[in-house]
Write a structure and sequence with these properties.
- This protein has 182 residues and is of the alpha/beta class.
- Helix content is 36%, strand content 16%.
- β2, α2 and β3 form a beta-alpha-beta unit.
- α3 crosses α6 and α5 packs across α6.
- It is globular and about 40 Å long.
- The protein starts with 11 loop residues before the first strand and ends with a strand.
Length: 182
């Protein structure tokens, strides 16, 4: 997989997507492009979930973070009935990423995209956890796109080849939704 040309102008990339999607190949490609790769620990800071992220964003250089902050917005309600990350924290984080010339990468699969097309209005509780997570990610990134550029990248699923995504022209991020690549 070759990262799309739409990623080269960014200094910061936050990688998010539902569990089970292959990230290793994308992360390796980003490292090859000169991004410092950081993997966030699975547990959240007990008082301020965004604190470790803000500390990373304060550093120099090009940075790609394999994140989990937005995952908590998705999987917290699915698994525990609530998220330990508030929307205010997530939106503050999104704005901090944007201020660091960054974007959020929304990783999706063919199955995710099929779920969006079949039932874009469907709420949680209507299918498998993976489908519910895919729809919850789509809603979360739709909201976050009002504060930070969001680039959706199709990645391969286990046992399937990854095709290089086709790029589309980005739209001004403050007034529009997401840029989908793939």
């Amino acid at each position: 997989m070759t990262p799309p040309p739409t990623l080269t102008p960014y200094r910061t990339l936050i990688i998010e997507g539902r569990e089970g999607l292959g990230r290793a190949r994308l992360i390796a490609e980003l490292a090859h492009l000169g991004f410092q790769i950081r993997h966030m620990p699975p547990g959240l800071h007990h008082l301020d979930p965004a604190l470790p992220y803000r500390e990373l964003l304060a550093g120099p250089g090009r940075l790609a973070v394999d994140s989990g902050l937005i995952a908590e917005l998705v999987y917290g309600p699915l698994r525990r009935g609530r998220s330990r990350v508030t929307w205010i924290q997530a939106l503050d984080f999104a704005e901090a990423v944007a201020e660091r010339d960054g974007a959020m990468l929304h990783l999706t699969s063919r199955a995710d995209r099929a779920a969006y097309e079949q039932s874009p209005e469907q709420g949680c509780g209507q299918g498998t956890e993976a489908m519910e997570a895919a729809l919850a990610y789509a809603r979360a990134f739709h909201t976050l796109a009002q504060h930070v550029p969001v680039v959706t990248i199709g990645v391969g699923e286990p046992g399937r080849p990854i095709r290089a995504p086709a790029s589309r022209q980005p739209q001004p991020w403050r007034k529009t939704g997401q840029l989908t690549v793939g």
